[in-house]
Amino acid sequence: LQSANRVLLLAIIDHVSSLPSILFPIEELVRKCRGFGFRRVYVDGAHSLGTVRSLDVPAIGADYYAGNVHKWMMAPTAAELFWTNKRHAGTQENKNGTKLHHPIVSHNYNQGLTEECTMLGTHDYCVISVVRDAIKFY
Predict the structure, then answer these.
(1) Is the pTM of this model over 0.85?
(2) How far is residue 133's CA from residue 126's CA, in Å, rounded to a whole number?
(3) For position 137, what pLDDT does the model report?
């Protein structure tokens, strides 16, 4: 993977695979990705929320982590979690010169990812409102 002529921008890895279901040593894989020179690491945690005990997302060391709350935590369909390392979520350019934005920004553009996600026009907020309670319940 390493080469003087390549720039490795993003590694995408599963935390728990679907079929066959395998729990990967995610912290070790993230470290290996960093060692290979990937600038960012995205962890797909679609099957981890509700199946992995004592999940400490920041301790994994990835830049981004996403998971489905509706699969194993009995929340409504489309209830999801997206976590990003603080260095990517601010309003200032990070050290790589990029900013992270919500793909659909109705209001609060350039106010940071959290603010950009707070008002998406006619979006149904009912699903979002249950994520915290589903995590606590589980």
Answers:
(1) no
(2) 12
(3) 85
